[in-house]
Amino acid sequence: MKLLPPNGDATRPIIGRVKESIFDVLYKYNLIEDRVVADLFCGTGSFGLEALSRGAKRAVFVDAAQGVIEILKKNIAKADFAAQSDVICGDAFKVGAPNWNDEKFSLIFVDPPYAMTVDTGVKSQLAELLLISTQQVAADGLVIVRTEKGVNLLDGYGDLRIIDKRVWGRMSVNFLALRKNDE
Q1: Which pTM value belongs to this model?
Q2: In the prediction, which pLDDT does 31 show?
Q3: What is the DSSP string of 42-108?
Q4: Is the CATH number of domain 16-96+103-178 3.40.50.150?
């Protein structure tokens, strides 16, 4: 389905073949069907809507731009996923992936503007968000962080550790998981 784009160039919708490649990686972890996902800095909602179309039971979308949220709501309605979607207009760096019923997320997709991912150090906004995410992701879940190619995340943030990294074109996608007790 073709999603409605927001006005201007404030968002970077993920291209179809890269999204397909990310979901190919995710299938080996069995984290989509009947699971809860979060799409942070969601823009058009492409990642969360794709997860819903592949069997996720619910998606939480977070973006700070009210104009983007209005387009997102139209995309959710167009895809007929309103009943399975929660939309939050807020700063994902501060709230992460809020979930009111205390259910943890199987997938948290983090896709901030590239300028906000240049600093990946322990005191960066991204580091603070990933620390929040350690409390919001399920024990078997993944946090997926999309950055510009050449940006290197730390090996870990709190209990989150990089378990895989892929590069497609001008972007990098890092897959982080909670450290197990024996690690």
Answers
A1: 0.91
A2: 86
A3: -TTTHHHHHHHHTT-SEEEEEES-HHHHHHHHHHHHHTT-GGGEEEEES-HHHH-S--TT-PPEEEE
A4: yes
